[in-house]
Amino acid sequence: MIIVTIVRAEKPVTPGDIIGVEEEYIPGDGAYVDENGYIRSLMTGRAVMDRISKIVNVKHVKNKPIIPRQGDIVIGIVEGVSNDLAFIDIISVEKSSGVKKTDFSGIIHISQASREYLESMYDAYRIGDIIRARVLNNTNPYQLSTREPSMGVITAFCTKCGSILKKSDDRLICPTCGNVEKRKISVIYSFR
Amino acid sequence: MFEKPVLIREDGLRHDGRRPDELRPIKMEVGVLYNADGSAYVEYGGTKVLAAVYGPREVHPRHLALPDRALIRCRYHMAPFSTSDRKSPAPSRREIELSKVIREALESLVFTDLYPRTTIDVFIEVLQADGGTRTAGLTAASLALADAGVPMRDLVAGVAVGKVGGVLVLDIDEVEDEFGEADMPIGYAASIDEIVLLQLNGVLTREEFIEGIRLAKKGAETIYKMMKETLHRKYLKVLEEV
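Above: the input entities. Below: the structure tokens describing the complete assembly.
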């Protein structure tokens, strides 16, 4: 029986550094194979060589560039609403290394807004709302989903007077003018 | 500067006391700017250059975005106070050309197809010009890209070779550029052995050209090592200690 003692080897690299040869590893993220068969780094960071799966990944020292990826949770502001779409300005991404600032745009289709039936997108989102959503794809503009209970509006503003709406049960009520509004409310709504 | 100075002294040294194959004192630093995603500051003797990189980020205006890869935009600019006579801050014909050659040099190294519909913006600001600003700018841009975590095949070091008083010299400065016979800036990616930028101003014979390339590669390798050292000093020292 062969006992693999070193499962992972790490070494600091800069762009262009040779990590290994094509026969040794499969280049994962942050690595590439040049025309001579050498695996080289694409970034400044740590090359992590997995001796079992034979994959070598390079992680940037500061986890840059910060770009939303499929499955990431993002925070955004509703920039526009049409009957079946909501346009979102993504302001931050929750990565494993923490919440990071970004600036990309996203779209929510009415079918991805809520688990329940929606007559129109205006019943889920209004301009200015701050929302939490999950990214569905890897290309810009990003498709977002708020079907999960923790996704949806986390702060909303009254469409009549502009003050912050308070959550009571599963409705949003304006504390100033008493207006009752419909939204796709996240379970982590900030004001109650 | 009305009179031609002595460019090659009788002892074979240059007007500033350097040997023909000697670089000027070089200083480099990365991560100098807080707001940019990546930044670098490079000094080649009296030439001082600052570079900042933003992105990959969303393209504005939208119609410029490319569906299959990232767009690289590059602005090489000389500050009004960078020369002895005030330089107009508007982009000159020369600056537009240098922006283009530096952009093309970087385009050949950056993995643009990983980030479709985004842009990588590179800003190169010359703070003080004393010859070799495009090569110092290219070095700074490359370091700033590495700092921003933009995936690139290799770092690139820029260095100029000139012909001055009939002698091939490395890393020419303002005086040598003005009164010399030829100026050949080169961008060299040392690890993968690729020349990504090459211009030639003046006349060189075939033999001089080959010798010039050899000299430039040697100089660029020294600068390339310093670039790696700079990145190590800033980021990787911590990792090595663990």
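Note for the figure: The interface with chain A takes residues 37-38, 55-58, 65, 111, 115-118, 146-155, 189-192, 227-228, 231-232, 235-236, 239-240 of chain B (CB under 8 Å).
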